[in-house]
Amino acid sequence: MVKLHGKDFSRRDIESLSGDIRHVAGVRQMELSDGLERGIRILEFRSGTGLRFTVLIDRAMDLGDCEHNGRAIGWNSPSGFRNPALHEYEGEGGLGWLRSFSGLMVTCGLDHTLFMNSVSAENYNYNPRQQSNHSLHGRVGTIPARLTGYGERWEGDRCYLWAKGIINQGAVFGEHLELHRHIEIEVGTDIIRLNDEVINRGFYKTPHMYCYHINVGHPVLEEGSRYLAPIKDVVWAAHEEEYTAQKTGYRTAPAPQMNFHEQVWQHELASDQSGKVPVAIVNDRLNIGLQVTTRKDQFPCLYEWQNYQAGQYAFGIEPSTHHVLGNQAARDRNEMIWLNHGESKSYNTEFEILNSKQAIANSESKIKAIAQQPTEDFPPLSNNFVQIGGRN
């Protein structure tokens, strides 16, 4: 059954009310037409609960706008949803990515994440290319998708909104990786499901690194908003040498600040019995939040990003296949994922809107049952980067 407005509806009930379920929920394709966003194809999803979000087809099918009953969930940065034709991958010494950084989720990869890096390219067997030079967070987030389908699907009396696409990252004498992305939400719910598969279509042994930059803005983020996570250990902080200088710990957000320098933390998180890792950012004043659930065997690492600078106010949840140490360290520690032809890695993630005091309480209870996070704002840092096993 489809649950809408506090009532259960069968497919027959829905169809008796209107000739098209899109009077309450649906997915449709549109195109942005002005400024630096001109020409971007998007899919707009409405689940019938007040949840509306967009999928940026021409930007790796990432999640752009997101709102619930008119309250924004996702972050909109000064860069906007820039058309990828304007993107300069190697611009500004590798920091050009920051001019295309906006939205609820930006995908990082497929063969590199984190800061700029030059690593050996000997695996591509091409003498003029001795090194692979990577800019911040890789290439995939500004590659247009080939949209393979979208729409509404009925299964009995349950209806699902969905979209599928393929993002190709390839070069002659280089990597040839494909991201197969499937986004789905059941009508009448607030849970977005993201299922990704990264496949090596090439015939070189190819490195694979992957990360989601999930970005939450106002009003979910405001002074007093809390971060909830099953933290076993606080491993690392980018600001370790000035750990308390900005007086901003990992647990609670301040109001927007002047001259705030971004802070990034890596926590070692525990998983539940099924291997799932839920984390959340919640606003108790407004009774709204976002819970992100990943799998520990897919994303063994997770970073917390704090950008409380006025005019760019944001909080980030970053599940990652690798430690924050970077590309070369992943190779040195034998933690790099190497894919041969036809090999793949899959990722299954859920985004759940917490739309009530009870939903927030349920999320907090679930997370606490897995592990009790530190109660102090500035817990000691272990610098214990647990070895990631099972890599080829």
TrEMBL record:
Signal peptide range in chain numbering: none
GO molecular function, one term: carbohydrate binding
Coiled coil: none
Protein name, as recorded: DUF4432 domain-containing protein
Species for this entry: Hirschia baltica (strain ATCC 49814 / DSM 5838 / IFAM 1418)
Higher taxonomy: Bacteria, Pseudomonadati, Pseudomonadota, Alphaproteobacteria, Hyphomonadales
